[in-house]
Amino acid sequence: MQVHNLSEENSILNTFISEMRDVKIQKDRMRFRRNIERIGELLGYELSKTLSYQSTTITTPLGSCDINLPKNDIVLCSILRAGVPLHHGLLNYFDDAQNAFISAYRQHQKNPESFEIIVEYLACPSLEGKTLILADPMLATGQSMVATFEALKPFGTPKEVHLVSVIGAKAGVDYVQKHFDVETHLWIATIDDKLNDKGYIIPGLGDAGDLAFGEKLQN
After folding, report:
1. Distance (Å, rounded) from C-alpha 176 to C-alpha 1?
2. For residue 65, with 0-12 CB atoms within 10 Å meaning exposed, 13-18 middle and 19 or more buried, which class applies?
3. How far is 111 from 45, CA to CA, in rounded Å?
4. Beta strand 98-108 with 138-139: parallel, antiparallel or unpaired?
5. pLDDT, tens digit, for every residue of 192-215?
6. How far is residue 161 CA from its own chain's centroid?
7. How many Cα atoms within 13 Å fall on the side-chain side of residue 55?
């Protein structure tokens, strides 16, 4: 798997990441969602450089010109609910993409430090021969990303796969590297060193879903 860690070079991306991490600034949910969206746009821009292009003639009011335009048939799939702002950011750049959504969450057993990934809701078009962009803001253990991809397999075999995340842990990156093809691309804003005993990214930023949309309803 090819890992593209955008934090390896300084850019305005650092500002968005810092605001998402900051315990004072991140309390503003609208700003938190917008920062995820903006990071999604930057990741989408970098991703776009690897797509396939074809020359197209465009007619202007004063003549015509040739320009290379992407020709990939893209399906953008996001993991609910934290993935919604990231989905919006990517969709701002890939506005003609087809869309898929999947619900994947951690189900803890008696031991709070152990869990399994439960996949429930899933809506997806055919993936056969298409470019799949699979987006999840937090790449912690990597299990959600792998479980989601497994759930998508009945919809066909993509021509290429791109994983997109905002913040990941080294352990999660290593995990997905073992489960995805070597030609898969991972686009990520930054990678933290470790996970805690409950599988959360350290230093991370907290629960992205809660910060974006409020605490989950309790059954």
Report:
1. 8
2. exposed
3. 41
4. unpaired
5. 999 998 888 999 999 998 999 988
6. 12
7. 3
Q: Which of 91, 37, 51, 53 is nearest to 212 (CA)?
A: 37
The angle at the Cα of 22, spanning 19 to 25, to the nearest 5 degrees, equals 65
Among 69, 68, 82, 11, which Cα is nearest to 42's? 11
CA angle 2, 72, 129 (to 5 degrees): 80
Residue 219 carries which side chain, given as an amino acid letter?
N
Separation CA 112–CA 209 (nearest Å)? 19
The helix (run of H) or strand (run of E) holding residue 92 is helix 83-93
Range 2-213: architecture per CATH:
3-Layer(aba) Sandwich (3.40)
Q: What share of the chain has pLDDT > 90, as a percent?
A: 82
Count of residues in the chain: 219
- Kindly give the interhelix angle for 170-179 and 143-152, rounded to the nearest 10 degrees: 30
Q: What is the pTM of this model?
A: 0.90
Q: What is the pLDDT of residues 5-47, one digit of tens each?
A: 999 999 999 999 999 999 999 999 999 999 999 999 999 999 9
Task: Give me the half-sphere count of Cα atoms (radius 13 Å) on the Cβ side of residue 80.
Answer: 12
Task: Give a three-class secondary structure readout of 120-138.
Answer: EEEECCCCCCCEEEEECCE
